[in-house]
Each structure stands twice: as C-alpha cells, then as structure tokens.
TrEMBL record:
Keywords: Cell shape, Cell wall biogenesis/degradation, Peptidoglycan synthesis, Transferase. CDD domains: YkuD_like. The active site is at H248 (proton donor/acceptor), C269 (nucleophile). Pathway: Cell wall biogenesis; peptidoglycan biosynthesis. It comes from Ligilactobacillus equi DPC 6820. GO terms for cellular component: extracellular region. Residues 168-293 form the L,D-TPase catalytic domain. GO terms for biological process: cell wall organization; peptidoglycan-protein cross-linking; regulation of cell shape. GO terms for molecular function: peptidoglycan L,D-transpeptidase activity; transferase activity. Pfam families: PG_binding_4, YkuD. This is ErfK/YbiS/YcfS/YnhG family protein.
Length: 294
C-alpha cells in the first residue's frame, strides 16, 4: 500500500478511495455494548466523603440521561450539580459568615476575608463520574475544593471545630487594640498592638483571613496614603491578606498608645513591638485563620 502511495506521489496525483461510514443502529454491537455499560452504571453508587460527613450518591438519581457520540458517552449531570450546591450550602465555609466567640466571651459574627473552602462543581462532576464508571466505593472531596487569597486550593478543610475556625488562630480586636494568639486551644501570648490608620482610610480589614506565609527578615515596600513610597526593614513578617496586611515588628514606631490607630496608625498592618514579635512569629502557622473584628 505504501509503495502504491509513493508511486502516486511521485506522479503528482494521489487517488483516494471513497468509503462511507455506516451510521450506528440500535442493534449494532457498539450500541448494545454501551447500553449494557449504562445499565450497569445506573445501578452503582459512590460515597462522597466531605470532611467528617459521608454522602451516598446513587448514579440513577444523579444522571438523568446520556448520549453517545464520536465514541464518547456524555451525561446530563444537572442533578449532580444541584447535589454539590446543597453540600456547599451545608458545609463549605468560603464566602460565608463565621460565628466566633471572642477572648472576652462575646458571641459575634464576622464577615468577609479569604479564609475557607468550597467544592468546585466542575471538579466534583469529574471526580464522581470517574468514580462511578470505575465502580469505586468512595472518594474524598478534598481534591475538589478551591479557595481565594494566597492559595486557590482552599484553607481550613480539615478543620471542623468552632465553626471551621478550630483552636489554632490569631484574634485581633480593633476597638481594644489587642491581639491574642492561640495554638491547640492554648493562649500562647496576648499583647497590645497598633492597627491601620482610621483617619486616612487605612484601617486593618475586618474579616476572617489566614496567614499566607512567614518571612524573616524582609523589607516591606508600599505606598503611603499621601502617595509617597516606603521601604521598611522588619525582622519578622506574616501577611494575612494578598494586598499586604499582616503582622510585623515596627521598630520605627514611637506611639504605642491605645488610640494611636485613630490618627497615627499603620498602613493597614498590625504593628507589634519588636520585643514581642519573635514570640508571635513562632506561634503563627501558615494557613491558620486570623480573625479581625471590632
């Protein structure tokens, strides 16, 4: 065959034989095989493990129809998408308000911030369909979650205590100008701080954030509210927002009064005395929640 092709190519003319593809019929072997596969598939079920809860999902309840084209099966998974929405409503934390008990004992609700996780409907569909087709008994949702901020893979999925915040976290009170640092439920340290300058609109953002990373030493660079730039060397740096708010020592600060934040606060960060920052830095963990409230 290749010799004939080469002769035609050398002659400058290539003859292509016409061959019509026969359409599949309902009684063809291919269709019957796929029908058998589908009949087996709709009888299957898979357990979707989401944190400490198990969801038993039946294929017949999630796949409403299927089509076969180009050698591929395509499923209508609209009901599956609704199931993921329901699970997110019950358990996901990203974009939701957090109920939080402050160190002082008050029960408050904190909104905003980047801490949390949510199941991606697109990822979950692929995971669950693949599991059903492979007849797996269970799959974990952890590979299907996403988040915002420093990590697009989400934060806090393995935490179920205290409404998803857990017992390792940092708490900052704007009105009290205090911060508390907990690890495994134990208070490591508490100390006065100076937060963002209220008068020029640089207040430290309220919300449930998380530690993106830790760096020591480094130089913090940015722009003041008046437009001038700054470069401030610090020994310890632990940011909790992607736009540059975090915990750091402030050797240049002289005003540490409880009202300094009103007119002489930071550019949004939580300033800590140099003598205390090493302890704070050691207590903080990458990914741990930071609750900033009034």
């Amino acid at each position: 065959m290749m010799q004939d092709f080469q002769k035609q190519a050398d002659a400058g003319v290539i003859k292509v034989a016409r061959k019509e593809a026969k359409p599949l019929t309902t009684d063809s072997k291919t269709v019957q095989k796929q029908k058998t596969n589908l009949e087996s598939l709709v009888m299957r079920k898979v357990t979707y493990k989401v944190q400490d809860k198990d969801y038993e999902l039946n294929a017949k309840d999630l796949i409403t129809s299927a089509s076969y084209k180009g050698g591929q099966l395509t499923f209508d998974t609209s009901k599956l998408a609704n199931q993921i929405k329901d699970i997110n409503a019950k358990q996901a934390t990203l974009g939701k308000s957090f109920n939080f008990k402050t160190t002082g004992g008050s029960e408050i609700t904190v909104q905003d911030g980047s801490y949390g996780w949510k199941i991606s409907e697109a990822k979950a569909k692929k995971t669950l369909l693949a599991a059903l087709q492979a007849n797996k008994a269970s799959v974990n949702a952890k590979a299907d979650i996403y988040g915002t901020g420093f990590y697009d893979t989400g934060t806090g999925y393995d935490v179920t205590a205290a409404n998803g915040i857990g017992d390792t976290y940092a708490e900052v009170s704007i009105s009290q100008q205090m911060a508390w640092f907990y690890k495994n439920g134990t208070l490591i340290t508490s100390l006065p701080v100076v937060t963002g300058n209220v008068s020029d609109g640089s207040s430290t953002p309220i919300g449930v954030h998380y530690i993106g990373y830790k760096q020591s030493p480094t130089v913090l660079r940015g722009v003041h509210s008046d437009g001038s730039s700054y470069a401030s060397p610090v020994r310890y740096w632990a940011p909790f927002t992607v736009d540059g708010c975090g915990f750091h020592d402030a050797s240049w600060r002289h005003n540490w009064s409880g009202s300094a934040y009103l007119n002489d606060g930071s550019n949004g960060c939580v300033n800590i005395r140099p003598s205390s920052m090493a302890t704070v830095f050691g207590a903080l963990e990458q990914g741990e929640p930071v609750i900033v409230h009034n």
